[in-house]
Specification:
Elements (H helix, E strand, L loop, with lengths): L7 E6 L3 H6 L7 E5 L9 H5 L2 H8 L5 E5 L4 H11 L6 E4 L5 H17 L8 E6 L2 H4 L2 H5 L5 E6 L1 H8 L11 H14 L2 E3 L11 H13 L5 E3 L2 H10 L4 H19 L5 E3 L2 E3 L1 H33 L1
Parallel strand pairs: 1-2, 1-8, 2-3, 3-4, 4-5, 5-6, 6-7
Antiparallel strand pairs: 9-10
Helix pairs in contact: 10-11, 12-13
Amino acid sequence: MSARVQRSMLILPVNNPHFVEKAYLRGADAIVLDLEDAVPPLEKESARTVVKDAILSAGRGGADVFVRINSEPEMLDADLEAAVHPGLHGIFLPKVEAGIQVAAVAERISKLENERLIESGHVKISLHVESPRGLLRLQEIATASPRAESMSLGVDDYCLHLGIEPSGEGSELYFPLCMMVTVCKAEGLNPMGIVGTVAGFKDTVGFEQAAERGREIGCTGAFCIHPKQVTVLNRVFSPVPEKMDWARRAVQAFEKGVEEGKAAVSLDGRMVDTPIYKQAKLLMERAAAIEEVQKRKADALRKIQGQ
């Protein structure tokens, strides 16, 4: 699979040392250290001074580490200066409305990589679209830089632009999220999202239902704001054992059928033809990639415990 597995991206304020120190224990596939909404304006300058150390701390458990920067020009350069250091996996870029924004950030990252002896192209970009204007330019945004790795929708801000409140069932989100998923699948990016909001972090049942709706339309993971939501996302965006068992048997049955000169076979009363075979193979690849992520995190934790 070309797209990196990130079932859960836990966003936390970089200026809260308690949250940062505990981040590596949360089990998230990715940690997003926030310099944007979670940091008050008067604290942003001081928050930048802790980013470099926070990246190493948050990444101790094997998670990919991102930094969410401010998109406003007067803060963006300073945020990138603070964020692009060894150990950083990517920049979480909010409020994206045009490809030129992405290209400019990518160019600045390239200069910082060169200055700080980071492998060229290592630092990725996670794109966060929050407005109808950005939605109408999704493909332009997705293809603006080869650093783009994933894309997500800022639900609350998007609804604000629409002049509505997020609904319980998330019906207003199907159109933008389906557009996003389609573009991401076409361009090889991870579509990240749930059909609902992350704000109600105490309602884990509702959050899980929203995550399941996101998975059903093609999302491969989502960001969240609470450790309890990490557990939900890791479970929802992983193949269930029953489906994995069927996929393995479907692959075996189809490949045996091909050897016998058949273009389709029957398994458990269901036809398995080429598209079904390819779906089963993709599911198995997804499971293998998740297993690698889990191993990476487990190995990192064992290394810490052995110190």
